[in-house]
């Protein structure tokens, strides 16, 4: 199949092009003239900054060790080696905690699927040290959420109660809750959904039926089946604008495995992620020179895949950290538009309809007894209008004070 896609990366910085070129190389690749030129003119401080932002320094370190190219300063190699060592310790720590949590939940009859972390590093890269991870993410049935929280609290974890809710909207407006262990400095995210609404979700029972068992440790630790993992990784990466290239590198590694494309395409269509899968494939083809194969064609036939891939280049060109608000006004406005553009027509209708469902801010604006919370449905337009008026008045008062 033709690998010529409409995305362009000629206007990427030399340092980003260098990073992508190194990550795209296989172990037997030779240094080309273009790569040698990029090495000669690289701003190495900028290169290090990009590698850390995109969380790809373990893979870069691995490639650079084998590349042994002239022109790479000693301090760059030493710094990546140090970062690699620290990450290895972090991943080993997470592996030990993952084993303990898996045993804890299993002993208490709670089924859990680890979504990322060491199991994914071992599966995709063959070595936990070649991928970064700062926390553990696991998926459980929503009916087991309360028991899971109590077990984590009993082990010394502290819940981050950042979720405000009214009329149980947390079940679909959010998809995970977070816990931090103050002594171990380990964060655990407990998911009851793979993605927030209005994403169409596979049932936990189906994911559990297709689960795989990790060979990382002797104790049974389960994670997503290969096609489910592809669907989760592309939906997660797309939702974050692929602002970290590590997520695309994960997909690249997954494509090197034996993927059941008939099964994968069926799952993506069923859950309305076909264009998201196509977006990821187009980005990988352009940025990592991965050839597009014939079996991928059904995911690339939707023009939305091409449009959304072009839209994602906004994040590739910039070092945007969506996890550290507040965002600049430009990025915030673009990201909102980008996320809305990812939705299918059905999902857009559901998303717009969700504005009619009460928000926690409504309860804060007009506190009512819990038994009367149903009144927020008819009152919502008025409460929303009142908040807009108050914000407008406060903004005008601020302008007057500035005069």
Helix count? 19
Beta-strand segment tally: 7
- CATH level-two architecture of the domain at 95-224: 2-Layer Sandwich
The share of residues in extended strands comes to 5-15%
CATH class of the domain at 95-224: Alpha Beta
Coarse structural class: alpha+beta
User: Main sheet, how many strands, which sense, barrel?
Assistant: 5 strands, mixed
The succession of helices and strands, N to C, reads: HHHHHEHEHEHEEHEEHHHHHHHHHH
How would you state the average pLDDT, rounded? 91
Overall spatial form? globular
How large, in whole angstroms, is the Cα Rg?
23 Å
Helix content: 55-70%
Protein name: Renal dipeptidase
Pfam families: NTP_transf_5
Would you give an account of this structure?
The protein is an alpha+beta fold. Among the domains are: 95-224, Beta Polymerase, domain 2, CATH 3.30.460; 359-389, no CATH class. It contains 19 helices and seven strands. The chain has a five-stranded mixed β-sheet, with helices on one face. Strands 6-7 form a two-stranded antiparallel ribbon. Helix 1 (14-24) crosses helix 2 and helix 13 (274-288) packs across helix 15 (303-316). It is globular. The model is unreliable at 396-403 (pLDDT under 50).
